[in-house]
């Protein structure tokens, strides 16, 4: 298959996809995440997965199928701390053409807590491509304690700056001690 405006052949070779298709699919993944963040429509994220996809999230569990991914991603990204993350850029990525995987490091920066300080944590993401711009699996690998510490530090900075939202205050009371 060839996409409009692209001369590269995107058909899989045997059980594999061309590098061009994997690159294009990953670029689409990144654009979709950006659009979902900008619009607050995290259903767009869920739609990037096959109906029978698996999403492995080490702190939250494994979600089987697009319709389990959808409520989880909406809940996670519309509540603190996900709601205060400003972007999810890939710091680097590599493509495993033999497996049809994209492996990348995703940064998760928080908005300015009011004092100009920066707070972020990253994770490794492993995406399994399924063809037609869809993913059959995503696994996010990270140290939950680093994210916890980062979010606590953000809350403390926001509290000191007088900008700590009530939702974050409740989160800090629950997880920050």
Automatic annotation (TrEMBL):
InterPro entries from the UniProt entry: NTF2-like_dom_sf, SnoaL-like
Domain (SnoaL-like) ranges: 18-118
Pfam families in the cross-refs: SnoaL_4
Top-rank taxon: Bacteria
UniProt name for this protein: Nuclear transport factor 2 family protein
């Amino acid at each position: 298959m060839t996409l409009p405006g692209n001369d590269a052949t995107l058909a899989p070779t045997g059980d594999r996809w061309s590098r061009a298709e994997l690159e294009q699919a990953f670029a689409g993944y990144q654009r979709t995440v950006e659009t979902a963040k900008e619009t607050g429509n995290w259903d767009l994220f869920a739609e990037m997965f096959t109906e029978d996809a698996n999403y492995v999230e080490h702190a939250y569990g494994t979600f089987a199928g697009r319709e389990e991914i959808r409520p989880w991603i909406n809940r996670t990204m519309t509540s603190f701390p996900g709601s205060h993350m400003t972007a999810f850029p890939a710091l680097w990525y590599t493509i495993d053409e033999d497996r049809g995987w994209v492996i990348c490091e995703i940064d998760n920066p928080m908005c300015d807590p009011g004092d100009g300080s920066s707070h972020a944590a990253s994770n490794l993401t492993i995406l399994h491509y399924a063809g037609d711009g869809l993913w059959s699996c995503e696994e996010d690998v990270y140290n939950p304690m680093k994210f916890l510490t980062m979010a606590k530090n953000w809350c403390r900075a926001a509290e000191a700056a007088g900008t700590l939202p009530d939702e974050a205050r409740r989160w800090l009371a629950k997880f920050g001690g």
